[in-house]
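Below is a filled-in request sheet from our internal design queue. Each sheet records the structural input a requester submitted and the sequence that came back. We keep these sheets so that new team members can see what a complete request looks like end to end.

REQUESTER: design group, bay 2
PRIORITY: normal
MODE: inverse folding
CHAIN LENGTH: 326
BACKBONE (tokenized):
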């Protein structure tokens, strides 16, 4: 989120990093010392030293809502590309639209060639994929209007606000991981505003019977690779790789089922709870190209436009071995 490759921005980031280092000198920072993430290191920094890279360890979950509600929540100028999500989800209930909750820990963010590393942070929000931002009838974009985000992380807070995102500075449980285990074996992740009653809480159990999971991993790969926008004309092009060692073996994507409770945009005001929410827990490294003009992303490989040769097969690939086939 927080980078673009303009010299000014790099200088600004370096200055922020230096000044926070100076501020921290001689101070004991017990929170930081306690904050040891369990996430794996970023494998793309070496391959793409001139790009912003990192790791997102996330719970991604789908909340089906009615198309009428979707139409009410999503700004009217953005069409909903129902055909695009039905291509991936032929059995998705009639008249419904998939909202994605993304609850993630951003880890080991680097701009290797510039020697820049950025502290980890957490964020969670409701995201609206498969939107016709450009009015061309085929390019899918994802509207991510609001996030709770680590309050102390000035660079990430500002970087997200620069997209026009409504950022709610928040604190986290667990403080520096994608989730923690509850005594009952479920995973837990909660972001809570430091200044209001807003929060989003995600509790999930791992599905043992994979065939119960209604959503193919391909759906999450597709959604998370759609360019993201908030309320400005700039888009975030995050390229998430689902084919590295971070997504195989002990780290293979885990289908989950659980509940989400929230009081946060666009469901702010009263607390809401969704039960029987299905999703996946997966960590993916990413390359991030920030603040692109959305119009330049028409028909981009992630959007489903013409020239997009990345045609996907249906089926539930949780049952298959992850790896090169993606
Ligand atoms: C993702 O986070 C969970 C919870 O902290 C951790 O157990 C897991 O190892 C992480 N995955 C990777 C690939 O770092
Ligand atoms: C890396 O950054 C450059 C410059 O912004 C960009 O042109 C290139 O597409 C990026 N690489 C990837 C793999 O996105
Ligand atoms: C892994 O996935 C990325 C993004 O989808 C792709 O660019 C890359 O070529 C893939 N690598 C391998 C070894 O398949
Ligand atoms: C996403 O799904 C659409 C079909 O809706 C497809 O055209 C596009 O290639 C997919 N994109 C990726 C990156 O898999």
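RETURNED SEQUENCE:
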């Amino acid at each position: 989120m927080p980078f673009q490759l303009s010299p000014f921005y790099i200088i600004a980031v370096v200055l922020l990093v230096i000044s926070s280092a100076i501020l921290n000198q001689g101070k004991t920072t017990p929170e930081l010392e306690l904050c040891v993430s369990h996430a794996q290191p970023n494998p793309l920094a070496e391959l793409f030293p001139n790009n912003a890279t990192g790791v997102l360890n996330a719970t991604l979950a789908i909340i089906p809502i009615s198309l009428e509600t979707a139409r009410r929540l999503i700004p009217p100028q953005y069409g909903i590309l129902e055909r695009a999500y039905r291509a991936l989800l032929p059995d998705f209930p009639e008249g419904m639209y998939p909202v994605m909750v993304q609850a993630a820990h951003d880890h080991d963010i680097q701009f290797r060639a510039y020697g820049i590393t950025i502290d980890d942070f957490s964020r969670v929000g409701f995201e609206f994929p498969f939107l016709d931002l450009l009015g061309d009838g085929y390019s899918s974009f994802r509207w991510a209007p609001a996030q709770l985000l680590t309050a102390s992380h000035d660079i990430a807070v500002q970087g997200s606000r620069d997209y026009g995102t409504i950022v709610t500075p928040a604190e986290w449980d667990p403080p520096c991981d994608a989730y923690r285990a509850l005594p009952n074996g479920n995973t837990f992740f909660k972001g809570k505003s430091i200044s209001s009653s807003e929060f989003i809480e995600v509790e999930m159990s791992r599905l043992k019977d994979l065939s119960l999971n209604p959503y193919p991993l391909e759906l999450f790969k597709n959604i998370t690779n759609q360019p993201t926008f908030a309320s400005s004309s700039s888009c975030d092009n995050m390229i998430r790789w689902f084919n590295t060692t971070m997504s195989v073996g002990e780290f293979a994507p885990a289908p989950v089922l659980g509940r989400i409770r929230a009081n946060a945009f666009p469901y702010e005001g009263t607390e809401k709870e969704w039960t029987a929410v299905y999703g996946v827990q997966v960590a993916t490294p990413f390359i991030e190209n920030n603040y692109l003009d959305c119009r330049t992303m028409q028909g981009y490989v992630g959007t489903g436009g013409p020239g997009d040769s990345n045609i996907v097969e249906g089926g539930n690939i949780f049952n298959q071995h992850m790896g090169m086939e993606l």
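SHEET NOTES:
- The pocket of 2-acetamido-2-deoxy-beta-D-glucopyranose (ligand 1) is lined by residues 38-40, 57, 177-179, 246, 251, 283 (CB under 6 Å).
- Helices lie at 7-24, 30-34, 67-73, 82-88, 154-161, 217-224.
FILED BY: M.R.
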